[in-house]
Every structure is written in structure tokens, then in C-alpha cells.
Specification:
By secondary structure, the chain is α+β, with helices and mostly antiparallel strands. About 40% of the residues lie in helices and about 15% in strands. Helix 2 (about 60-70) packs parallel to helix 4 (about 95-105) and helix 3 crosses helix 4. The mean pLDDT is about 95.
Amino acid sequence: MGLVLNNILDRVCSKNKENLKNDIAVTWINYKSEKNHINKGFGFGINNKKLIYPASIVKLVYGLAAYSWIETKKILLSQEISDATNKMLSHSSNDATSFLIDIITGTTSGPCIEGEHWEDWKYQRSIINDWIKELNWSELNEINCCQKTWDDGPFGREKEFYGIDSKNRNMMTTDATARILEEIMIHLHYQKDNLNLRGFLKRNLNKNALTMDPLNQVNGFLGEGLPENINFWSKAGLMSKVRHDAAWWVNNDSLQTLLVVFGNGEKYVKDEILFPEISNAVYEYNNNLI
């Protein structure tokens, strides 16, 4: 898989000389499945431990945190929380994300504050990172997930919380993203009294349906390179300096795939061909593997 992945990136990057392979991070994992059981995955990564600004990929972390908070009775499930989580993951709503972070951390945005109130606010906002550390998953070491996502940018205390030169901004790796998505896809036990995170990430790959939703998180991302009829789940991230995607799909009854790709740099933002080419090459390889 390592040789195949390097060959795929060499090929797709050579088509556009600006897309250098050292600016791409990838984690690719295949899972053999049998009798409704998914076995431990096996795979390979390139720059997969490199910390990169995750954009809306961080919403996977916030979704899992909300699930955990409900499971441990820190917050109570409500229709509003469920709707907000759905909009955060399915439609990548920044407003819904802001609401959920306020609920999870007990903080709110607003003007700058000082003294003990400011120290308390920073402590409260950082409890998501504390929870990440308590999970004790090696893939999540050194990541930072404590900031809201924005359409324009942070103001007031949110901007100050970013720190000098934005040193406290969100940072993730493709390995960390893969671990979070794996947890959502195969380890959570869904119940009526908690969030259906997997359902919120399900995508329709039908091209006619996609034309009705210009913000579908499929076109220009990994889902576009796959057949329309497969089961597919994903969360994309796109802003002025990055293009990312984290996806899970079913090849057939015996093999499922997790693929996370981070494109770090402005050159990837407008490149709507690269990600579909990578996912298509991975899919074709898996078809020959089966």
C-alpha cells in the first residue's frame, strides 16, 4: 500500500507541478469485514503525523465530543443539539459549530475580558483538549482542537485566544483525523438517547442530487472519484489556504476503506481534480485487491 500510495501521488502531482507531494498528507486504511464485523485496519501514511490547520475537519472532533458529553451525562440530548450537530457535520455550518462549542465548554464569544474571568474562560474552552488527552490515543498526541470555525474570522476574546501569530489555532494530523473517523464509523454504539454521528456524515454520490446542493462536500473532494452507488461517509474542510477531506466507503462485503487527505497550501484550494483522482486510484487498487 505504501508503494501504491507513493505512485499515486507521484502521478497526480506530476500533472500540476505546483502540487508538491510534500504539501500533501495522507492516511489510507483498509478494513476487512466479515459477518457484520470489521477487523482491525491495515494501511499506510505520508506526512500523516504532520500538524496542519484542519479547517472544518475539526468538526469531527467536536461531534465526537458532543456524543461523549451526552454519554457521560455532562449535557442532556435535545432536539436542538441533535439538529446543530447534524448541520455541523452534514452541512458544515459554522453557526451550529459555535453553538455546540458553547454548550460543550460553557463558554461564549464576545468582547475581550481580563483577569480571573479571562483565565477561567481559557480554562473552560480548553476542556476539549483535556478530553482528547484522557482518551489516550497515540494518534491524537499534540493536536489542538479548541477554536471555533469562522466564515470571516474571530473577533474579541476569540481572536485573543488564538494567541500571538495564531499559535493556538486548531491543528490536526491525518492520522488523528483517521482515528476520530474510525471511532465514529465502527466503535460507537448508536442509541436513541445519543447522536447519530454516522448518519450525519452519510453522503449521496448521485450526480443529479449533487447538482441541487452546491455545498455538497463531494464535488472536488474524494467522493467525486468514486462510483455513485457505493455507501459513502465524509467530512470535508475548505478555506483560503487548505483543501481537506476525510472519507469512509464500502468497497464490497469484505472490504471497507478510510482515506484522509490534507492539501496544505493555497494551490490546493482551487484544485478540484486532485482529490477525486486520488480516491479513484485507491478505489481501483482495492477492486483489484479483492
